[in-house]
Write a structure and sequence with these properties.
Length: 112
């Protein structure tokens, strides 16, 4: 129990630095990008760390007459891109927490 209190005291002492890093992290989210592809690269979706879709590309060779298939490929590519970007965001949050000297697994609002 005393170990947790010590960690909590350390976090409180560094609150200013933590806020600054959290703001930097929020900015960084817009810079983190990942792509997902489906249908043998017929559809490619790019997202950022804020989970915003930045682009959707449909290959010239895609059978546009098969609307349902294209819609499914867009969903699959978007989900793949979001999974990748979540992993990158998580890694960035872990790196930031480590640089602040926070114990592993410390959950801070707005950081992950």
């Amino acid at each position: 129990m005393f170990k947790e209190l010590g960690q909590f005291a350390s976090i409180m002492k560094n609150m200013g630095k933590i806020r600054e890093e959290a703001e930097r992290f929020q900015t960084k989210l817009g810079e983190i990008h990942a792509e997902g592809a489906a249908g043998g690269d017929m559809v490619t979706v790019k997202v950022n760390g804020r989970m915003e879709i930045l682009s959707v590309k449909i290959a010239e060779s895609a059978p546009l007459q098969d609307r349902e298939m294209i819609e499914d490929l867009i969903c699959a590519a978007a989900n793949q891109a979001m999974t990748k970007v979540r992993e990158l965001v998580s890694l960035e949050a872990q790196n930031m927490a480590t640089s602040l000297g926070l114990p592993p697994g410390t959950g801070l609002p707005g950081l992950s």
